Amino acid sequence: MQEHFSVIRRKKRAQEVCTAGSLREEWHDTENGDRMLLLKFPLLESAGMVQHCFTTRKGGVSRGIYSTMNLSFSRGDDRSAVEENFRRLAAVLGADYDRFVFTDQTHTTNIRKVTSEDAGAGLMRKRDYTEVDGLITDEPGLMLSAFFADCVPLYFLDPVRRAIGLSHSGWRGTVKRMGAVTVDAMKREYGSRPEELLCAIGPSICRDCYEVSGDVAEVFAEAFPENVTEILNRKTHRPGGEEKYQLDLWRANEIVLLEAGVRRENIAVTDICTCCNPQILFSHRASNGRRGNLGGFLCLI
User: Fold this and answer.
1) Average pLDDT, stretch 87-105?
2) What DSSP line would sit under the chain, residue for residue?
3) Between 169 and which of 69, 87, 99, 178 could a Cys-Cys bridge form, CB atoms 3.0 to 4.6 Å apart?
4) What is the distance between the alpha carbons of residues 197 and 195, in angstroms, rounded to a whole number?
């Protein structure tokens, strides 16, 4: 690994939000001589018991709209290129290629407890489950894997009971409180206590870039009645035009975790927007859907 100057545009955050350590940029030399850029949370690293990252577009072999570090098999990229990208990622993380476990994201709040029997699901073999947007485990060596291109990655670590969780939370998952659902699943399966959890809200679309229609705004206003002004900002349009709003998914997910009992000082919130960094990160909005996928990864060691 070599240090490198920052290439990512970061967002300024309001002082009242949780900021338990910003994301760190980490460059790695691959065996093929390329350079892979990963993003990591110091808060999660501080426990000394997990390997984790959020990937960028840098360090893979995919081409065209997928260049270079695409981690999706379902968007039209060459399968052998995606497999090579995973091999490179496994080597950099010191992970076993056959121990990745994928979500099956359909914007639900379904959580799956995974074990060694699930090793390789999604990468080495077909998944025997569907509609799963969150994974939890207490088994070392399983690399929980979820995929993103504007939606919100949520990382969970219980350093006391040595359990982890990784969830995908788009606007539908956020309004249904995916973060709290994941906390509840860890409480139920591992006896986790919310106040002992370390949580991180990963790179995703920021409020400035995320414009939503009035019907989506109304759903959030109903779900977060006491926090409407914090998460929604009405945009000004020409008379007669459709009302549009800017939605802050970072703050909404932060509120969900706080209400679930996670301590303010134990929540790290990203300052990196996928849409603001289209050359470094895949963004569905910035690319009009012509893109690959980034990955969020978390593993007990």
Assistant:
1) 98
2) -B-----S-B----TTS--S---EEEEEE-TTS-EEEEEE-HHHHTTSSEEEEEE-SSS----GGG-S----SSSS--HHHHHHHHHHHHHHHT--GGGEEE-B-SS---EEE--GGGTTBTTTB--S--SB-EEEE--TT-EEEEEESSSEEEEEEETTTTEEEEEEE-HHHHHTTHHHHHHHHHHHHH---GGG-EEEE-SB--TTT-EEEHHHHHHHHHH-TTSHHHHEEEPP--TTSPPEEEE-HHHHHHHHHHHTT--GGGEEE--BBTTT-TTTS--HHHHTT----EEEEEEE-
3) 178
4) 6
The model's confidence at residue 241, banded by pLDDT at 50, 70 and 90, is confident
pLDDT of residue 17: 42
88 pLDDT more than 80: yes
How far is 275 from 294, CA to CA, in rounded Å?
A: 13
Place of tokens 């999706």: 72
Each domain of the chain, given as residue ranges in start order, spans: 24-206+250-300, 211-247
What is the distance between the alpha carbons of residues 180 and 286, in angstroms, rounded to a whole number?
A: 29
Q: How far is CA 221 from the centre of its chain?
A: 24
pLDDT at 26 over 60: yes
Residue with tokens 């290629």: 97
Inter-residue contact 66 to 292 (CB < 8 Å): yes
CB atoms within 10 A of CB 294: 29
Q: What is the pTM of this model?
A: 0.95
Q: What is the CATH number of domain 24-206+250-300?
A: 3.60.140.10
141's CB contacts (< 8 A; 6+ apart) are 96, 99, 116, 299, 300, 301
The amino acid at residue 151 is C
Output the pLDDT for position 18.
Answer: 42
pLDDT of res. 236: 66
pLDDT of 1:
44
